[in-house]
Structure formats: structure tokens, C-alpha cells
Amino acid sequence: MNEEYDVIVLGTGLTECILSGIMSVNGKKVLHMDRNPYYGGESASITPLEDLYKRFKIPGAPPASMGRGRDWNVDLIPKFLMANGLMGLFEKRRFRKFLVYVANFDEKDSRTFEGVDPKKTPMREVYKKFDLGQDVIDFTGHALALYRTDDYLDEPCCETINRIKLYSESLARYGKSPYLYPLYGLGELPQGFARLSAIYGGTYMLNKPIGEIIVENGRVVGVKSEGEIARCKQLICDPSYVKDRVEKVGQVIRVICILSHPIKNTSDASSCQIIIPQNQVNRKSDIYVCMISSAHNVAAQGKYIAIVSTTVETKEPEKEIRPALELLEPIEQKFVSISDLLVPKDLGTESQIFISRAYDATTHFETTCDDIKDIYKRMTGSEFDFEEMKRKKNDIYGED
């Protein structure tokens, strides 16, 4: 291990694994280590079910009614809408006109603007133009455009329209849902990017204790592990490896629920995502629910996993998520966790230590992708170009 690397990555959460893969594809010499013997870090998939009981200190073994323990792959932090009963007939007509407008919108073609200036007109005025009610505005902004607050309403409408357009195009492409979810759980994603890094020469070491991050003159120069030092020019890590360089900005409550039934009023869907907008429950933060099932090879036959999450706002977090838990009743077993929202204290420009943000309450990858792109820009000085990544891959493997 006494070698010099361009980049050392600590932690195998999704953010770290994606950045490891990107840096390897970019020709960097990468060493990737994790103190854990498994991939995923805080976003790991836990199997068998017995391990989930142990992790949350639930006494006893899972009941026989839950099937074989090895049939379960439970995501600790799931990332992946339900529109039932939101609109009456006339509201649907107005919303359809709005969606047609969004579908035809092209920020490079003023003929599609219909009197709206995408760089100046606030989104609030666009909703008013189509006479959309508050419930539909909440649904559109939080479930389609995936905003976490209502601040966007007074911002220029261009970004919001493009976000809704992305949702609509994704839905048209895949039919029943705009979202994708990997079989066997999200733990497959970090492993996939780890394999990508390995293909391009990256070195992986799991179950590797990290002794010390070595900094000289304010800049990272290496990592010490088991008496050996690996030198590097840049370091990527999750907050748990550098507790003195991060700060707490809040907390997230997550409740994993095992069910023997699909969620009510979802047409017996085998999976779904529900976003309860903040205004609907008199909160500052949305409440998220995602449900998956045996259809995704993550639960025993006939069983469902629903995970509720939100940003903590009071001293009684479990009461805050009661509106979501009521949607899930009856619940066979609950696993409750409250985790700190940790963010880096600085940008890493001087130390060249680039720290990912803790996973927030959202059940989609929007904020995770933003963090990845932000770290990449700080490390390289340039915006992440997905097309360039595809070109580099195709240079080696050809078109696919």
C-alpha cells in the first residue's frame, strides 16, 4: 500500500463510489478503502433480515411469518408519487393545459414561451396563468419538480419548467413510473460503480481500518492504515472519517416498516413513492414514503417494505411522521433511526479533502447528484460532463 495515488476515497457510500468511478474513468490513479466489510456505508442494503433486527437491537428473531431471512435486502436509506384524488374534472383540464405547455417549452425558442419570460417570470405567475389550485401547486412543485421548500415559487420559472419536463419525459419513456429501482436493493449501485472504477485501474480494500489522515502544511498528503501509508494528492470521504471537519445542520428521522399488504389507495402497487408536501401537514419539510416489495427481490413473497423519512423539526420526531405512518397501517414491525445531517465546514480547496454531505430525507437522488457534481467541480475546476464520460467509455468498449 506504500504507493502514491492521485485520489484516495474513504467510504463506500453511493456518493463516494460514483466519484471513485468517475475519477478512474478520467485517468486518475484511485485507491478506495472502507473500514466496513461491505459496500454502501450508511446507504447499505442489509441482508439477511436477522441482521436488520440486530442492527436496530430488536430482541428475538424475526417471526416465521416473515419468511426466510435471506430473502430480504433492506435499504437503510432508500432513494428513488402518487397522484390519487388530487384534482377534480376542471382542475385536471387546467393541469393538462399546463403539462402541454411544459412539453412544448424550449428555452431556445421564444415561440414556445406564450408570453412568459423564462429568465424573469417567477414560477408563481406561471401557475397563476394556468389557474392551478394550491393542492396542484404543492403536488407539482414537490412531487414532480422535487423541490423541498417553496422558495422556488419566487425564482425565475425556467429551471422549474425543465424539472417538470424531465419528469414527464421520464414517465413517457418507462410507462408506469419515471423512476428506476435496482433489483436486490440500492446496495447494488455502489458495487456497480466500484466495478467501474476497478475496470479503469482503481484499487479497492474493504474491511480496512483507517488510522489517520495525514495533513502537512494544511494539505492532505496521505492516509495511514495498519502501519502503512498511502500517499495522495486529493482525498474524498464521507463525514464519518473526518468528524472534526464537519458540522451538524439538522437531523433526519427514518422509519423502516414491514407490511403484509400494499399501501391503501395505490391500486395494489408493488412499489410507489409518496411525497406529502409540507403545506399539507403544516410543516416546513416534506414527508417522504417509498414502498418496495418482493417484486424487487428485497422482501419475502407477499411482504412489503415502506420507509418513511423527514427532516426533524421538533423534540418529538416520531409524532412528526404520524401522517405517513397512518397511511401504512397495519405495520408488522418498525425500525426507527434518527441520524445527524452533517455537512463539510469548508470547500476543501486548500486541504484538498472533499467531504460528501450526509444523506437527507428525500427518497430520490436529486440532492445526492447535486453533491456529486459539486464535489467534482471543486476537485477538477470544471463542470461534470456526462457526454464526455460516455465518450471515454466508448473509446475503450465501443458503442452499446
TrEMBL record:
SUPFAM superfamilies: FAD-linked reductases, C-terminal domain, FAD/NAD(P)-binding domain
Subcellular location: Cytoplasm; Golgi apparatus, trans-Golgi network; Membrane
Topology term for the membrane: Peripheral membrane protein
Record GO cellular component, one term: membrane
A single GO BP: vesicle-mediated transport
InterPro entries assigned: FAD/NAD-bd_sf, GDP_dissociation_inhibitor, RabGDI
Keywords: Acetylation, Cytoplasm, Golgi apparatus, GTPase activation, Membrane, Phosphoprotein
Record's function text: GDP-dissociation inhibitor preventing the GDP to GTP exchange of most Rab proteins. By keeping these small GTPases in their inactive GDP-bound form regulates intracellular membrane trafficking. Negatively regulates protein transport to the cilium and ciliogenesis through the inhibition of RAB8A.
Subunit (UniProt): Interacts with RHOH. Interacts with the GDP-bound inactive forms of RAB3A, RAB3B, RAB3C, RAB5A, RAB5B, RAB5C, RAB8A, RAB8B, RAB10, RAB12, RAB35, and RAB43; binds RAB3D to a lesser extent. Interacts with DZIP1; this interaction negatively regulates the interaction of GDI2 with GDP-bound RAB8A.
PANTHER family: RAB GDP DISSOCIATION INHIBITOR BETA, RAB GDP-DISSOCIATION INHIBITOR
Full protein name: Rab GDP dissociation inhibitor
Organism whose genome encodes this protein: Rousettus aegyptiacus (Egyptian fruit bat)
